[in-house]
Design a protein that fits this description.
The chain has 2 helices and 8 strands, in the order H-H-E-E-E-E-E-E-E-E.
Length: about 170
Amino acid sequence: MPMSTAGNDSRPCSVSSPCRAAAAGFTLVELLIVFTLLVVLSAVLAPMLTPSPARTLRAAAGEVATTLRETRRQAQATQTRRRFVIDTQSKAFGVEGSGTWRKLPEDVGVRLTTGQSLLSGETRGGIDFFPDGSSTGGRVSLQLAESALLVDIEWLTGRIRLREAERP
């Protein structure tokens, strides 16, 4: 059986004796495809990963709406009145009587529209939810940069809706 050197091997490639050239590395075409995919993925994912005012505002409004819905759910489940409370100065909000309070980002402006009897001080107020699901109604307005979102609470049904504010 003749001996062959690595460069002069004339045997065909098989499962028992793999070709050395096939395991040598990647082709230029394969590398170009991988780099192209990386560039496309980074171009698509970069805007999603960088913070934007609109995304920050939508997340803050979503948290407020979720807490309002939770307050309504608690009122219905316990068959007692529950109050959503927000402090527009400290930008903290939560369910009255619960120990967990959430905080809005510092750069988000907040305003509460509610009944006079539900205000407790200059910067603090609430919205009541009743056992039948209805509420006192109101609105939480959030603003950041040029964008504004409104979280509306219907008084008769207690329904919570999130919508963009109309621009003047």
